Amino acid sequence: MTTNNDIWVFVEQEESKLADVSLELLAKGQELARRLNSQVCGVLCGARVEELAETVIHHGADRVLLADHPELENYRTLPYARVASDLAREHRPYTFLFGASPLGRDLAPRVASALQVGLTADCTDLQIGDFESKKEKRVYSDLLYQIRPAFGGNVIATIVNPNTRPQMATVREGVMRRRDPDTSRKGVIEKIAPTFDARELVLQVLSRETRESTVNLKGAPIIVSGGAGIGSPENFELIRELAHILGGEVGASRAAVDAGLISREHQVGQTGTTVRPRLYIAAGISGAIQHRAGMSESSKIIAINTDPHAPIFQIAHYKIVGDAAEVIPMMIRAFREKAK
Amino acid sequence: MPYNSIVLVKQVPDTHNIHGDVMKDDGTINRAALPAIFNPEDLNALEMALQVKERYGGAVTVLTMGPPTAAEVLRDALYRGADRVVLLSDRRFAGADTLATSYTLKCAIQKIGAFDLIFCGRQAIDGDTAQVPPQTAEKLGIPQITYAETIVQLDANEIVVARAFPLGKEIVKCTLPCLLTVVGSANQPRPPSARKMIEHKLAATPLEYNTLLSQWQEFETEEKLDAYLAARNLKIPLWTADDLAVDANRLGLNGSPTQVYKVNYVVLETAESKQIPANAEGVAALMQELVKEYIVG
Q1: B248 touching A (Cβ < 8 Å)
Q2: What's this model's pTM, rounded to 2 decimal places?
Q3: Could you give the domains of chain B?
Q4: Interface ipTM
């Protein structure tokens, strides 16, 4: 077994389109690799995806490990985990990064468990730095800092894996910036010929349908979000109306999604989409860290809540203590007046 | 044919209801102000297991790992219809990350014995990692179906499951045994049954005997209480590391490769903040300001 400082990225593709989060990770991987004086390696699995390997290089990989096999056509946990685990066992990279997508969250824990290494979920940042273990009285240099909001409070935790390799993490989509492809970049493509045994092929995909999101929270300049404090689906219509007349997008807290007021793709926060709009209006949202961590960088924040101690008010530029169901119609009226 | 199910559940702090009293001014959390609850999607997992039992027969065993107070979610599971519950609790399990947790659960599942299906909630609301179920499936060497919403078909040794993602659906067919993680949209969990609550009112783990004895002095000693509960199937088994075939180095903090390097109590605060009165004049002035500063309009 050799160890090295290489940064591995599992590159997700569906129907020959690379996932945004993978492109973001390749860009971040380059930054980490420069710091460690090492290489970025993309692991690409699929059937007839060979032409994508060049694109992976254009987005930041120095090397692509390409597993092209008919059994890898649709994503399935066991064959994909087999390929990823075998490659990681053979090469022992320094880190192995996955998107925190449904696929990454299904695959990464399976691989980490097989390799018996640590895994940190849903990171919002990755850095390189030293770690002093007081227990072992030694300093580990250049570890991967896996940074994520943690526990329902206002905390950001930095996690390290001092002794196991690869250091594994899943990373949220949208928190890292991808780079434009550089078609002049050159890299090495290595083809892998995996074999599978029958026990790894016990699951069959009978049908699969995906749809493009009709919600564009990431790019919206104005977002009007509703929380559980909105109360009813009828009141949620007020949120939609305000968003519509301001030319913005509708967002929501997890509590509103869990209460069935709106679909999950509208969810803002740690477990939803991270946003940085020009204006963010939080109506009936108390402001759990999962939510605030995902919108605190908005340029202007208006918070409306009946509880004057709601955490959302700590980050609001404009605080309105009151019932959103009454305040929102006032905002709609006031804006219509202005527009006249 | 009957199917034997195991449901993995977790007691979690209710992070969905963070109110002003929970957050202290220095950014730390007043944990005591957060009630401990049955992890919401674990209730969906339990409901799916109970529906399989009602339709095909078999038994539902609920397993949790946690502090002694985690017995509360096990009693709740009994009230809703679980046949058998087990508490995994030991100081040696404490401080476990997801890898050590999955190892401990795997050892406990092997002790439970033969099973056809394992049901878990998609993720727990305290950590939101969704890692333990796939890690446990890997250690058991069985396939997993995450994001399970509906069991479309269950026939002999084969299951057909509809998976629901934020942006899509998938139907998969798989052989048993396998592990499912269940999403919140899967079903409406049944409430506790009044009859079962009365039946299982005294259900307790040996760790709770002290408390029970102070309430029910007629039992006099722990031995008498234990005999009474055991005879009525009200004794909740407590398994420690000594009850499992485990490698102690893979448990708890020792078995956890991840370490918390630091925790930053970030007080997210704005430098400037304006209070706007919740009336038509206040709101109109605010909208005017936003238009003037080209933030809207």
Answers
A1: no
A2: 0.87
A3: 5-250 (3.40.50.620)
A4: 0.90
